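Working notes for the structural subgroup meeting. M.R. asked for a predicted model of this chain before we commit to crystallization trials. I am recording the input and output together here so anyone reviewing the notebook later can reproduce the run.

Input as submitted:
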Amino acid sequence: MRVSTGRASQSDSRMFTVVVDGYGVGKQRRAERQITVPFAQLQSLIQTIARRGGRIKAINESLVAEVLFEAPSPTAPESAPAPAPAAQAAPTNPAAMHHANVPVNLYKPKAPFVGTVIENYSLLAEGAIGRVNHITFDLAGGDPQLHYVEGQSIGIIPDGADSNGKPHKLRLYSIASTRHGDNMADDTVSLCVRQLQYEKEGQTIYGVCSTFLCDIEPGAKVKITGPVGKEMLLPADEEANVIMLATGTGIAPMRAYLRRMFEPTEREKNSWHFRGKAWLFMGSPTTANLLYDDDLNRYLSEFPENFRYTKAISREQNNAKGGRMYIQDRVLEHADEIFAMIEDSRTHVYMCGLRGMEPGIDDAMTAAASSKGLDWSQLRPQLKKAERWHVETY
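Returned structure, recorded in token form:
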């Protein structure tokens, strides 16, 4: 999203948040400030900041500003203001810059990339329910190279044919590794796969592709398509706040985000150094079913100022009403803190997991918003339009 003053009009009702430092007096000058103004006052504010030696770090369209908080008035401009220098013009939205060159559909179903399985191991502790595996594929040798960014998905075409004798259709899986891969060599991709299992007419049915993947042996060849998706990409802002809501294998993209943020080898290799707040809400039926829990607890101990990890373990914890603890119950518990973060235009919310989690989260956000006098049915579309509300469910 670009902030352009070329389409200004007196009727433009948009609000913008300017992130600035070195502006004001005393403590204000030494600290970073956020000033939210109507579009009509934006150019004057930019010019005033430039004249007074301030440094603009970001300008973001604040679609929720009028709902969440009252915008403060900027310092009144002096008479006959001088034009702002070119370097102080409204910058391109960092997210738009970051998402400009995202790879999409490098390999399609009719001509998939054939990768090799490097490893396949269980992610569950003893006593867990079901079957969940971490599977890594070698992507080396592709022309073009199959590369991706955090938050994207790839397609897997399982071997064999369906009941009609036709090749199986591809299934999409969220990528669980960073763009560098678990080996940091830029030539692997990892998935977090739960074997689908359900009952039908007294028989246990297993998912075709998920079973294929959970059973596959290292060295086997797999047809891969993609990558696809731009909905779940991270913002470019190193000081962004990221709230993550995940259940089960919905942890996959969150693992990629958190590795990029906190793994030492990632931080050394990237030119992106996360300094914001990351808060993961993780839903699981049992403690044994928590995925990547050791890594997450390590990030918590190493980066306590930047990472927060809240678990909802439904079969072991109770909510305030004495029922099972689900992720929406945790959202309600922390509603004030969540909405305080959402007031910051740099905060993004990501949700990933089974589609059934959406109504519960929506109900929790509705109740939390209502307690603050807000209407979630109006606020959520505004966050979505501002590219701050990201959902991938299945």
